[in-house]
Amino acid sequence: MPLLDRISIDPEVVHGRPAVRGTRMRVSDVLSLLASGATQDEILEDYPFLTVDDIRACLAYAAAQIDHTVLTAS
Description:
This is Antitoxin. By secondary structure, the protein is mainly alpha-helical. The protein has helices spanning 27-35, 40-46, 52-66; strands at residues 7-8, 19-20. The protein has a two-stranded antiparallel ribbon. The radius of gyration is 14 Å and the shape is globular. The relative contact order is 0.19.
């Protein structure tokens, strides 16, 4: 399964915010945990329904969202 297929957006789940497929764990929650210094192992211990690939998918999703063309003046 490609990583981004692990992320779903469903208006019936967490108000349509991106979440790990099959859970109510928002991508932003995983990213916030990582940003606050939580390790992958700590996240997996606290949220045993997540997998390493789910965490990687959240990072891949975030990276895809900020990827854009930079326009510069000539």
